[in-house]
């Protein structure tokens, strides 16, 4: 294993926490005897090229310093390779780190865990989702939640989480159930009018909303959560339960498990790890053991 570790940094993550977090994370790695280089791209495409170059050159690990968007970008560089991925979670949502029980907004501790993982070979192989050649770690969202993302991305103000709270309120005012066609790997086809369908490799999205609360990142299967056609009043009652994962026993909610999922619907964009991956129809495949995460002994 190379003693040179690559920090893959999003300096704007968490309203600037990414840039601030890089230093304590790097200090923890250097204190453990590792050489540290930093990769910061001019934009996402440039950053990914640089991360892939580091992996191709044999870096000992790629360490993502940022939020779920940067982790998703890092996955494109390390998935299917022998290069382990470390996580220093300092973004807004941090759902990938949350699913693995890793530190959130504590870069010094996260850096030490990465160092411990490298020195002690303390890591965990987990599954990833794949849509075409694009990898994702947490949830593929479609329906109400993806339309909230669409609306939020079009809004300049307000900033941060308030933007998406407002987007939710505005979308609720006009939202109607979407006719979906859901095809699972056992060949079963379900045509349903649904508020949303979430395909979970991980448990949560949106900063802790446990939409796929029982998903296991090591079982080779997605958890597919279908929230059926329900009134705005019902949705408002069910929505708060998502943070504890207790919505799964509501009559409007169904859960399926499958290694391959096809989603089709008109005028719906899919979002994976919070990033747009294209208009439906989309096919998601669960790939077992696609990446090795440095956990420093933590197992999620």
UniProtKB/TrEMBL annotation:
Keyword Lipid metabolism: yes
GO molecular function, one term: ATP-dependent diacylglycerol kinase activity
Residue ranges of domain DAGKc in the record: 1-134
Keywords, in A-Z order: ATP-binding, Kinase, Lipid biosynthesis, Lipid metabolism, Magnesium, Metal-binding, Nucleotide-binding, Phospholipid biosynthesis, Phospholipid metabolism, Transferase
Entries under InterPro entries matching the protein: ATP-NAD_kinase_N, Diacylglycerol/lipid_kinase, Diacylglycerol_kinase_cat_dom, Lipid_Phosphate_FormReg, NAD/diacylglycerol_kinase_sf, YegS/DAGK_C
A Pfam family the protein falls into: YegS_C
Keyword Ubl conjugation: no
Enzyme Commission code(s) on record: 2.7.1.107
Cofactors: Mg(2+)
UniProt-listed Gene3D superfamilies: 2.60.200.40, Probable inorganic polyphosphate/atp-NAD kinase, domain 1
SUPFAM superfamilies: NAD kinase/diacylglycerol kinase-like (SSF111331)
Class of this enzyme: transferase
Family named by the database record: Belongs to the diacylglycerol/lipid kinase family.
Name of protein: Diacylglycerol kinase
Organism of derivation: Streptomyces endophyticus
Classification of source organism: Bacteria, Bacillati, Actinomycetota, Actinomycetes, Kitasatosporales
């Amino acid at each position: 294993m190379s003693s040179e570790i690559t920090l893959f940094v999003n300096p704007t993550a968490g309203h600037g926490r990414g840039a601030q977090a890089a230093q304590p994370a790097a200090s923890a790695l250097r204190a453990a005897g590792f050489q540290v280089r930093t990769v910061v791209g001019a934009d996402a495409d440039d950053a990914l090229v640089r991360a892939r170059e580091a992996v191709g050159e044999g870096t000992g690990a790629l360490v993502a310093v940022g939020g779920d968007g940067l982790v998703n970008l890092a996955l494109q560089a390390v998935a299917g390779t022998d290069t382990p991925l470390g996580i220093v979670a300092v973004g807004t949502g941090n759902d990938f780190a949350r699913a693995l029980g890793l530190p959130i907004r504590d870069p010094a501790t996260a850096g030490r865990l990465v160092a411990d993982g490298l020195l002690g070979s303390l890591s965990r192989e987990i599954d990833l989702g794949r849509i075409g050649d694009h990898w994702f770690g947490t949830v593929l969202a479609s329906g109400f939640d993806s339309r909230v993302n669409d609306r939020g991305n079009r809004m300049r103000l307000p900033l941060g989480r308030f933007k998406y709270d407002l987007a939710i309120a505005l979308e609720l005012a006009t939202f109607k159930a979407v006719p979906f066609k859901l095809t699972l790997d056992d060949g079963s086809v379900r045509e349903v009018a649904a508020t949303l369908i979430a395909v979970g490799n991980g448990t949560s999205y949106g900063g802790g909303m446990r939409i796929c609360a029982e998903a296991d990142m090591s079982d080779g299967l997605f958890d597919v959560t279908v929230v059926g056609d329900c009134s705005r009043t019902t949705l408002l009652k069910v929505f708060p339960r998502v943070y504890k994962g207790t919505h799964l026993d509501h009559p409007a909610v169904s859960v399926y498990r499958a290694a391959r999922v096809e989603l089709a619907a008109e005028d719906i964009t899919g979002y994976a790890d919070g990033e747009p991956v294209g208009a439906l129809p989309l096919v998601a495949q669960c790939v077992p053991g696609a990446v090795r995460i440095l956990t420093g002994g933590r197992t999620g």
